[in-house]
Amino acid sequence: MNISSATFVKGITNAQEAFTDELFHIAVIGRSNVGKSSTINILTKQKGLAKTSSFPGRTQQINFFLINNKFYLVDLPGYGYAKASGTQKKLMGDLITEYIFSADYRLKKVILIIDAEIGPTARDREMLEALEQINVEVVVAANKVDKVKKSILKKQLDDIRAQVSPHVVMPYSAEKRQGVGELSNLLTV
Ligand SMILES: Nc1nc2c(ncn2[C@@H]2O[C@H](COP(=O)(O)OP(=O)(O)OP(=O)(O)O)[C@@H](O)[C@H]2O)c(=O)[nH]1
Ligand SMILES: [Mg+2]
After folding, report:
1. Measuring CA to CA, which residue among 13, 34, 15, 14 is closest to residue 25?
2. Which of 11, 35, 37 shows the shortest CA–CA distance to 113?
3. Binding site membership of 59 for ligand 1 (Cβ less than 6 Å)
4. 77 pocket-lining for ligand 1 (C-beta < 6 Å)
5. How does DSSP classify residue 77?
6. Which of 10-19, 28-37, 103-112 has the lowest average pLDDT?
7. Going by DSSP bridges, is the β-strand pair 24-30/71-75 parallel, antiparallel, or unpaired?
8. How far apart (Å, rounded) are the C-alpha atoms in residues 104 and 10?
9. What is the CATH number of domain 6-186?
10. pLDDT tens-digit series, residues 44-73
């Protein structure tokens, strides 16, 4: 799809403040530092729209971006950051879970971002199982393919596909802008 407008509308730290109007949501979920915010910037072609950082734990609220006045693209905090404090982990974990499991809005699709080099972690698989329970469509986006050696990329993607089947896997690199068009095409299909 062609994104003609993208604006930040609000950031929340309490899932009950999520938008519940008639517009649908597409949520971007994944481990800390996997490139969720970078992906939002690359999909919207606006470099600084979502704040990114080389340090994990950058996004600490749920940020809503209004796309084409049609739907919300939702940037979530990451999970699985080992060095975060216990309290911080719990706060972020609760925020993510409450948002995902709240039935008060139209969550149409989840883009679950994993690291193409690492593959799905135990936490990613837990998240995938949770998402399967609520019957939301999931696209597994394998980011950072630029870090995977070309000679093993095909095998690595085959392994990832086998592990997350039957979900669609889209390999791409937010940094090198590879495969971003294909990911974008899946947004509202
Ligand atoms: N090599 C490489 N690095 C990337 C890619 N995409 C993102 N990064 C880097 O990964 C780091 C984290 O990116 P973010 O977009 O902030 O990650 P995030 O998932 O939003 O992280 P949190 O908000 O902390 O959960 C940054 O240093 C990015 O430059 C990619 O495709 N390839
Ligand atoms: Mg982020």
Report:
1. 15
2. 35
3. yes
4. yes
5. P
6. 103-112
7. parallel
8. 17
9. 3.40.50.300
10. 999 999 999 998 888 899 999 999 999 999
